[in-house]
Amino acid sequence: MVSNTLLTPAGLSPTVHRLVLVAPRVAEVRQPGQFVIIRLGPGAERIPLTIVDSDVSAGTIELVVQAVGKSTSDLVAVAAGEFIDDVVGPLGQPTDLITKGTAVCVAGGVGAAVIYPIARRLSEIGVDVITVLGGRTSANVLFEEQFREFGELIVCTDDGSAGRAGFVTEALADLVATRQLDVVYAAGPVPMMRAVSAVTEASNVHTIVSLNPIMVDGTGMCGGCRVTIGGVMRFACVDGPEFDGHAVDFAELADRLTTYRDDERAAVGHECRGTG
User: What is the pLDDT of residue 1?
Assistant: First the structure.
């Protein structure tokens, strides 16, 4: 665990923020699909966040945080130059990347932060990348210009304010019906990933989803992030966070994500700050 300085807090949308942290050891070895667990200060919640990008020469990592509850709201309120007590990582298994063929990268909302390093690396190694990027409105579509650099981009918004109106699954279904696809990578809300997996399963297109279960220690010891994959219990922190979407028990995952909802509401009003 190391003490890390927050260099750049910046808003990407009304609730989504970009954080750049000094974490040289993590920056040097991280790979697409891996994450860190951060703790703002004593008594604070441990928050798992995907490593979106890194700059080895500067010794920094980039994280994206959606302020939806007490802990994430406290985190994005930290000013540049202040400290976050603990940043542990990189954790989890790197993404299983194909090296040739066509990959569709599907991102819903803040899931774009998870898909971004995957799409970028696939593009770098010569894979044909098609990104399907979704959000409720145009304001919720993240990294649009960056994804355009990696290949074909299809933007979908629920209200039609950007790109095509409708869900990412509708655009994906069109691709499955008309293109030869080798793999689909997906990240976003659980209902979205479940629907993506349903679209691809009928055509037997290999699908990898990035799961977001409740996570505490990140080492497989607490069991909080357990998920059922193909009828077998796995731990997202050490076995994942990415799994075969056709084997995930999404109903169980969705149910377990509501476990601490009352506690989350009760936490509002309790402040926690870093001590570095």
Answer: 29
At residue 64, what is the residue type?
Answer: V
Q: Report the 10 Å Cβ neighbour count for 189.
A: 15
pLDDT digits (tens, 9 = 90+) for 141-179: 889 899 999 999 999 998 888 889 999 999 999 999 999
Amino acid sitting at position 266: A
**How far is 241 from 30, CA to CA, in rounded Å?**
14
We find that the CATH architecture of domain 102-256 is 3-Layer(aba) Sandwich (3.40)
Whole-prediction pTM = 0.86
H or E stretch at 62: strand 60-66
Q: ∠187-193-196 over CA atoms, to 5°? A: 115
Closest CA to 201 of 173, 232, 178, 226: 173
Quote the tokens at residue 133: 């990027």
